[in-house]
Design a protein that fits this description.
8 helices, 9 strands, seven-stranded mixed β-sheet, 236 residues, alpha/beta
């Protein structure tokens, strides 16, 4: 019953090599599988990842780019056919440090959601513009208030879900496509009674490639969080 690390990719041909090589080094110390969830990247990210020929690493090819949420949901569906104990969400752009993966896994247990958190003591961000820091902090503060969830990094994407927790959620009902998906999953886990654990991490702004963040993604998160908050208030 080992963990599986799910890494969604779209045009990450540069960063994916360094990330997978780092995970391969860690793989020698701790047993886990890695599945790259590629949305048919024009820059051949999937082909490059496959060419590394690393043990325990595989590619899940998706035909179209449909967003972060659908990519992870496809990864969960794929992984739940196996015998994994934990499912790890991790960005492909090296903003999440592979060496901190051990800290998150060590904190995981049955029926848990572990979130790598930037905004608690011990957490930090590197090379992130003040505007992005404010946007992240403000987004989490609003979601925390609206949804009444006692977590300090609701948009954070470095996470571990236990298999028991995932099986208790109605994953087919998840609707979000962008980073709002992370808020939706945190809300679902909270309502399911999951044990919520925060582990401080260092988040590093990407050096290569282009950020997937857009105004549309921010608007989606704001609108959906408001809807969920109102729903919790009037239809508890």
């Amino acid at each position: 019953m080992k963990p599986v690390i799910l890494i969604p990719t779209y045009n990450e041909s540069i960063a994916i090599v360094e990330l997978l090589n780092k995970l391969s080094t860690l793989h020698n110390l701790r047993d886990f599988d890695v599945v790259v969830l590629d949305d048919n990247s024009p820059d051949k990210t999937a082909d490059i990842a496959k060419s590394l020929n690393l043990s325990g690493f595989s590619i899940l090819h998706r035909k179209v780019k449909s967003g972060l949420g659908p990519a992870y949901l496809a990864g969960f569906k794929h992984g739940l056919t196996g015998s994994y104990q934990y499912f790890v969400e991790m960005d492909a752009d090296l903003s999440h440090q592979p060496e901190q993966l051990v800290d998150l896994l060590d904190a995981a247990a049955q029926d848990t959601l572990v979130i790598g958190t930037r905004w608690i003591p011990g957490g930090s961000v590197v090379n992130w513009p003040k505007r992005r820091q404010y946007l992240s902090r403000a987004g989490t503060a609003y979601a925390k208030l609206a949804l009444r969830i006692p977590l300090n990094d609701l948009t954070g994407g470095f996470r571990v879900y236990s298999v028991e927790l995932l099986k208790s959620l109605k994953l087919e009902d998840m609707q979000s496509t962008g980073y709002c998906y992370q808020i939706e999953m945190a809300l679902a886990a909270h309502l399911a009674g999951a044990k919520e654990i925060e582990v401080p991490i260092t988040f590093v702004e990407r050096i290569n490639g282009v950020s997937k963040m857009s105004q549309a993604i921010v608007v989606e998160a704001l609108v959906q969080t408001t809807r969920w908050g109102l729903s919790r208030t009037f239809r508890p």
